Amino acid sequence: MINGISKTKTILYLAAIFVAGLAAGGVAGYSVGRHSYFGPPPPGDLSAYILARLKSELALSEEQVRQIEPLVKQSSEQLQCIHTNAMWRVLETVQQSNRRLGAFLTAEQRQKLADSERRFEDSLHPPEECRPGPR
């Protein structure tokens, strides 16, 4: 006996702590993993972040914030387009690579690769003004 606690109870307590840690890690990993870190925040969120940072760092007055807000919103929209265009270029590179890879794959593997490529393309939802021309 270890200070009035049996070995069995000690093992059970340690197992319970392990399982609790495993569950907490799983929940934390899931919540972090479901967020996409490859995309920029929506333009509204980005402009709000930039405005808040400028206001704080530069001690802007409310009048100054009102004056620069349209410029910050426009810049945020342009940044969204830049990101979208870059993602379309990534997709084009992936498609070119997949075409070359296809020579080494079975028909079933090529279909799986095409499905994966289609899911990636479907995940790109550019604003109308950022959409590429006919492909």
Describe what you observe in this structure.
By secondary structure, this protein is mostly helical. It folds into 2 domains: 1-35; 39-130. It has helices at residues 7-33, 43-58, 62-101, 107-123. The longest helix has 40 residues, at 62-101. The model has no long low-confidence stretch (mean pLDDT 82).
Secondary structure category: mainly alpha
- Poorly predicted ranges (pLDDT <50, ≥5 residues)? none
Count of helical stretches: 4
Let me know the largest β-sheet: none
Helical residues, percent: over 70%
Integer count of domains: 2
Overall pLDDT score: 82
How far is the N terminus from the C terminus? Answer: 75 Å
Secondary structure layout plus pairing:
Elements: H1 7-33, H2 43-58, H3 62-101, H4 107-123
Structure summary:
The protein has 135 residues and is an all-alpha fold.
Highlighted features:
flat; 135 residues; mainly alpha; 0% strand; 4 helices
